Amino acid sequence: MHRSDLLRMTSVKKSYGSLVALKGVDFNLREGEVMALLGENGAGKSTLVKLIAGLAQPDSGSIEIGGRSVKLRSPQHSLEAGIAYVSQELSIVPSLTVAENICLGGHVHGPFWTDRRLAAKVKPYLELVGLGDVDPSSFAGGLSVAKQQLVEIARMLSRNAKILILDEPTAALSDVEIEKVLGVVKKLASEGRSVIYVTHRLGEVFEIADRVTIFRNGSSFDPVEVATLDIEQLITSMLGRRLNEMFPPRATELGKPILSLRNLRVAGMESPVNMEVKRGEILGFAGQLGCGANAVIRAIAGLNPVLDGSIAMDGKTVNHRDPGAAIELGIAYCSDDRKKDGIFAGRNLVENLTSTNLNRISPGGVISAAREKATAEQLAQQFNIRIDRLQSLAGNLSGGNQQKVALGKWIGISPSILLVEEPTRGVDVGARAEIYRHLRVLTEKGLAVIMCSSDNQEVLGLSDTVVTFFRGKIVRQCEAEAIDLPALMRDVTHPETNSPGVAA
Amino acid sequence: MISRLLIQNLAPIDAGDGNTFARRRKLSLAFVGIGILALLLFGGLTTPGFLTLDNLLVIVRAASITGIVAVGMSYITISGNLFALSAEELAVLAACIFAYFMGAGFDVVSSVMITLVAAVVFGSIQGVVISRGADPIITSLAFGALFQGLASVVSGNKQMLLGSNAAEWLGTGRPLGIPMQSWAFVILALIGWVVLKKTRYGRKILLMGANKNTAQATGLNRTLVVIVAMSVFGLCCALVGISGAAQFSRATATMFPGLNIDVVAAILVGGIALQGGRGSPLQAAFGAVFIALLQNYMLLHAFTSGQRMMVIGALVVASTLGYHYLQGKR
């Protein structure tokens, strides 16, 4: 190889409780290259990045920088080793000036400074990221998101970073802005810095990366030269399996419409929503963070107020206003954060599973141990939860089992609509397939499921009908059979572009 | 009796593999049990008159005062609403109301009923405010000032005599040789425990405390849970106020000094988790017994009231830190 390895990681392992995030991963990064990291949600790429950034420590394995073994115990350690991490959530302080933001937490000034001195200090870094025309004394809050992103990169450059980690820097940007950020990334690499670039957008990989490391299910493949790849190969490597092995067959026949949204307006959606869900149907919302899909789901759950239009069940307008009313109507809701509001971590599974249905297990206000046990065991059986774990606390279960409890607790009240956000977040692959199967079994009994997910394969594989969202607008509503993965990916990331090879 | 209660309380939570929460609860109950036994032993060996029947009765009565309120407060803590710091003030106000109606010539039963109803109302008003999302500590502190002020106004800052000794048995009676307060304490603690473990309302308290957000998402009514918990607390404060006024045939606006901190200490020493969702009124009851033993020991050793307050304060700090540490090791 003509370029030396700047960073090398060997058989790195990392677990969070019972969830194995990295199962012995090798990784290397050369000087002056852009290395893309690709993988599904939960495949391990963000864990790897956190280890490099010093935000987490590996359980075992070694990290070498420039041939020397290092321990990166904190973000400060990583910075000193020349590694800078720009996370998805920007840490720009809007009420400080651009110059102050760049110097924030660094050592580029003495004990006294003036605006002019700061401006002079940061000018070269601003020019490095193509912001030479920005006034360093202006407030950072006045800049566009893309420019804030670049200011953040400038801050990292001011610390003399040799390795830049960019975690989905373009997720919230428009096309023109993306071009600008990508241009800066290319320029930095050509000046000899190394960039680790985490992304969901396959198009960007071809545009800027020299090599790509693909993550799947906690393992990584050897890096591949991008020039030798095409987009089909990339998708196959990412998935590592055929979709039909993971997902149960689709519904053959749908029932009567049960829920319809007419000109529904909610905060978070720019245009009114019209759609219909039938009994036995799984309706899948695809979209990225902030796309509006969650806003629609939460409106149906009674958590987001309906600004205009109507929600109708069985033809009758309901427009309920709170979660309690939604539950009365038979609408159950599982949020994307089960630890926050999906389970009672400190209580056992019996109490978790019966929590939605206290009236049934406590006739006359007194809890009947027999009814409680029967209800819990019936639900546990239905959701394939081991009966002998019913006395365990929900917080001690694996992510997959917790998700089964979060879903299972609703089945006791026989809801007619089940709303699920991110049904398999933090769930390992084996339990995923099981959860998909459970959801399908429920719909076969006449339940309707509306789910939203940022995992595109999941939406495509599980749903009968797919709705794609992009920035508060619905891009497409169609049968799942009528759309393929590249088209779906384009819808949720880049609906303006039409050639799948560029921005899938 | 202590060990039997311990076993009863432990039986239903004997859980399977890796159950750290349950293990910790067993630990905390064992701690306070051992603490009580150790204090009894140590006190008996080093303090003449500590283990006499008369002194034990004094201890039991003192434990009952703290314990009745602690049992009432335990629902607030377990439902995830920390403490109500208006116990002392509400008990004082209840004593004054009781004395006022007794002094005005009402019979004992009417005076008791009026006082209980008033205290439940005062408790539930705090519950309404807290259920709107107000901080329970600040809310109860403010209501405490309000109650104290009201008690001063009602009493005119003077002793309020009951006028007759018709109610005296409520404070000094000893059916089967056991003080009235202690009967009330034991019965309340047992009822409180059964209600928490065996009824729908108790389950709601536990779930609410375990995770407020999940409770809301599953449609549990937080308002009702909090208001009932605060009403129960008000009722318990009133019982203490009435028995105090009856015992001394008078009420003053400074009747129960240090009750708030004693009750908080009892809850903490009993090992009820501050973040809610775990614990039982029995733990609060054991905590109260421990505090009463400690107070009595210090009294017999001629600690001044200032010194005793310092010890209780230090104990609260130590147990807060202790549980914080245990929680951190989860």
Work out the radius of gyration of chain B.
19 Å
Strand segment count of chain A = 21
Report on the biggest sheet of chain B.
Answer: 2 strands, antiparallel
H/E series of chain B, N to C? HHHHHHEHHHHHEHHH
Given the C-alpha coordinates, what overall shape of chain A results? globular
> Radius of gyration of chain A over alpha carbons?
25 Å
| Sheet with the most strands, sense and barrel status of chain A | 7 strands, mixed
In terms of DSSP E residues, the strand content of chain A is 15-25%
CATH topology group of chain B: ABC transporter involved in vitamin B12 uptake, BtuC
Number of helices of chain A: 19
CATH superfamily of the largest domain in chain A: P-loop containing nucleotide triphosphate hydrolases
End-to-end Cα distance of chain A: 31 Å
At the first level of CATH, what is the class of chain B? Answer: Mainly Alpha
Secondary structure: helix percent of chain A = 25-40%
Q: Given the structure, what is the number of helices of chain B?
A: 14
- The oligomeric status of these chains comes to heterodimer
Mean pLDDT of chain B: 87
The helix/strand class of chain B is: mainly alpha
Structural class of chain A: alpha/beta
Structural domain tally of chain A: 2
Rough outline of chain B: globular
